[in-house]
Amino acid sequence: MLELDKSNIDTKKFLDEILNGSGVVVFKNVFNINEINLALEIVNKFSETQDQKESHFNAEAEASGKIHLQQRVWNLFGKGEVFSKLISNDIIFNLMSKLLGSEFFCGSYCASRLLPGSPGQELHLDYPYWDYYKSETFPIGLNSSFAQNCQVTIPLDICSKESGATAYVPGSQKNLHYPTKNDDFSNKKQMIANPGDLVFFNGNCWHGASPNVSDHQRAALLIEFLPKYIKPVEDLVTYLDEEFKKNCSNRVKQLLGLNYEYPKIMESSKKLNNIGIGYKTKEQN
Question: Which domains does the chain have, with CATH numbers?
């Protein structure tokens, strides 16, 4: 895990580390602690009052009757203005625009709350590769030479070795492969971080929540960013009211895909021509 200076960001070094290095980069003390604590308060409130929500890669927890110790809070855009503010951070937008293209989307935005005794997750890849164990359902020749996702973690609690900081295998993103029990995990590390830090990692890097063997919870915001052409895994828009969609910032509109008109109902489109650069027209003129 490479630590970079938030006040003097080396974009080239960031991109190289995400694609060709360990796959993980951390920036320390990025967020205002009061905003982090507000987000934590909201996450804890929903975690304690809502029904158990869908999570992923928790077969061991489910089989052992401990699935309730891994809690998720979804639809964060609709649960408080602080979540829109945190995800719109300049560092996030500047770096994701370079890695995924300037019109990148948010594919998923949730909170993970890992309670003491949680066994953690299986090591895995993230969407759109999260079911790459069914490789026959993916295009031939698919590889990890360029990024089609990037994950961000914003710790709300201390993410320590004991509390279940995300485990990862450095460099595993360089060879697109869903990990199995036959793979070598001997070099496994953890994404140790504190509240207010900002962690980026390549979604193809084998990773997963570690067991929480501490006496306290470990909560964090989990964000997935995608290029504009990949369908988000979470429906981020349906639960938002029209007032939110109308008044949210341009950055949030971009993240929600509101600035990108496709897919659309072509039958009702009033446009006669929309895509292309018109190079033949320019030559004629």
Answer: 2-284 (2.60.120.620)
